[in-house]
Amino acid sequence: MEQKTNVRAIIKNNFAKKKRTTDKAMPIFFLVCASVSVITTIGIVLTLFTDAYKFFQKVPFSDFFSTNLAPLSPEPHFGILPLINGTLLTSLIAMAVAVPLGLTAAMYLSEFASDKVRRVLKPMMELLAGVPTIVYGFFAYSFVTPLLMKIIPTLEAKNALSPGIVMGIMILPLVTSLSEDAMKSVPEAMREGAYGLGSTKLEVTLKVVIPAAISGIMASFVLAISRAIGETMIVTIASGSSKNFTFDITQSMQTMTGYIVEFTSGDAGSGTTGYYSLYAVGLMLFLFTLVLNLIAQYISKKFREEY
Predict the structure, then answer these.
(1) Cβ atoms of 150 and 176 closer than 8 Å
(2) Residue 2 pLDDT
(3) Do residues 246 and 253 make contact, with C-beta atoms less than 8 angstroms apart?
(4) The whole model's pTM is what?
(5) Domain extents in the chain
(6) DSSP letters for 33-85
(7) What is the spatial distance between Cα 76 and Cα 5, in angstroms, rounded to a whole number?
(8) Domain 69-302: what homologous superfamily?
């Protein structure tokens, strides 16, 4: 017992000698760094709620949750439903492109491609994530839209279809990469057991790997649609600024982010109702993204398989 006490005392003395001012300061420094994101988030939320509250003091909820959006008319109306409609339609088109293509690409990279092919294809696909969104916007407006006009003669120059397709291409690396990582995390023993029962590689992929990795795959879908909802430049350039409430994807529509860009360019003076409407729309966009992130976390925890 005396020897153990002596050893502990020696260790304590050595630690006390080595402990310097920097060792005391570093935990505080790390805490400050970790608090930056939290403080920033609190500041954003307070700003949105404070200025959105000023907007709702002037505009009733019944007018805000309506289809009448005419912010610059002599009698302005600030119905957000046309913006929500445009945002959801373009995002759903994007997911219709990204989900099947991304999941198929993830299946190939995880289960069928050789290591050499995977090392080449995956970085090439992830390069799409590095393309500036304004480039995607001009690509949608100057290439995809004229191409679609040859197929759909009634398609307008500004429409919801073209930016939706290009947004699907933009979020494709997100779906592919996260889904492929989820599939690769499935233990090899599960694959070998299925092969031992006579399953083909496709059957193993569809009936073993994907069900086992479903939490990660679903989380990638939710995060991808959250990314699409928050996209700005593509829809601003290619979708137009029509504020009509319509489900016709060949017509021009405006999204929530497009509305914010339009009004921050100088259409609304500071302190006006139109100015505060930016914060109300931004708050709705924030709530949309928050709900989607919470859904992604719930799916990951609900369907997570631990091996």
Answers:
(1) no
(2) 47
(3) yes
(4) 0.83
(5) 2-58, 69-302
(6) HHHHHHHHHHHHHHHHHHHHHHHHHHS-HHHHTSS-EETTSSS-EE--HHHHH
(7) 80
(8) MetI-like (1.10.3720.10)
